[in-house]
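Appendix C reproduces, verbatim, an entry submitted by the partner laboratory led by Prof. M.T., so that reviewers can inspect both the input and the predicted structure.
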Amino acid sequence: MSGAVDPVLSDGGQALAEAIAASGAAVGVAARDLAALDSAVGPDAIAAGASEVAELGGRIILLGSVRQASPELDRHELRDAAAAARAHGVALHANIGALHENRYQPEFAADTLAAADDLEIAQFHTIFGLMEDRFSTGPAWSDSLIRAVGPTRRLLDRADRPLVLRTHEEMTTFEAARFLDEVDHPALRIAYSPVNVVCRVEDPLHAYDRVDSRTTTLFLDDGEQVRVPTGADRRLRPLGEGTVDWLSVLRRFGRRPGGVVLLDLAQATFDVPFYDADWLAHQPDLTPGEFARFVQLTRAGGARQSSIDRRRAVARQVLRQAHRIRESTRSAREPALSWLAWLDTLDEREIEQHLGGVFEHSSWVAAAVAEGRPYRSLDELHRAMMSVIRRLPEREIDAFLARHPDLGADAAGLTTASSQEQAGAGLLTADASRAGLMRELSSAYRRAHGFPLIVAVRGRGVDDVVREMHLRQTGDTASERERALEAIGAITRMRLDVLSEETASARMS
């Protein structure tokens, strides 16, 4: 890429850069999209790749194999590679292979697990299989999903790290959500890739809503569906120039704790032959409404798939621009650092008084983290506060959750923070129909689980919130308890941002 002129971003590319910057998510890049790791391996290559990622404002490299750090898995080389990445502030993620019984490679997975500690792997990535597996009869697709549940649980127990399942072209989001329910392991989450779900005749935005509460990673890519005689083709495009509604996806993704936006550009072209009855028979979850939305997104005619070189050049420019935007707002974050220093001067009672409203009716959380000062960042303070909650026995966690308000509740019973958040989302002024629906969904959820349906509503609208309330009605109590804690994590992290900014402004005025 040296000597190449940076491409001018389209309006869509610029808007995407702004949305990435605003999301607060950590940015990562797949090794295959880094010039430094295109063919080189070893600690020096990892160091060069980490430098490349850091220049783009990134903090994560996704390795296709741990052997990119050391071909022979030499422990000294692995540790040197980890240290080289760490020196640039970059964490390493690693692919652990596919879960489908015909694709699972025990030796590859074992090598990945064995190298994970020395290489300081923070998270594993997986896919279920490949496109042809969906149409195979040995085993049938539905059987392969069932048969992978037990082995996936055992893999997770051995991994001792989060594992994210990518929404790949062979798997629908309906199936991904059900698979997570069946595996029922807290370390298994979703990595959402919108350009892949269209291969299953899914509308990327509605597909995301189905897995939103389980998603911790977004895969950055773009494309469009072009009409052809057999149905449609998926053709990949530069970021911001396709039909993926990235602004809406990122708005839904929000500022969730641990959120990752990871650039990994697909290269294959797939057809979506929806006029073929046999092909459609392999999409049992497809509804008429979803099909209609998919067809609306298809374009008549269109250029051939964009080259990978151009897509990489545009993607790098999008990430650079997102980094510039974040850097330009660094001065706005400086008050948070002085606010943390000010917190260090307060006694425990004053800390509880000042931070007591961050968690609903639970000022004791603030008191519990007072002795852990000093905190170097808002993220570190927030992690400490969430750790207080997560260490509670299950019965006490449920009691803590029960202190939270229902969505669309009477404003008179809300705390100041909840009132501002729900009002900002339009929940307190919703029309009678939506207000009644929210009450009905909230009541049904409380009856099922014993605690309220909790959603991070800041930056969202009434219809978004109601859609998630519908989707959350089918979860089991253990899964919903975890989703509630994740939502509280997002809510309280944003409250800390607001509190630090307001207090710093008041102290400077």
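The chain has a mean pLDDT of 91. Additional entries are available on request from the coordinating office.
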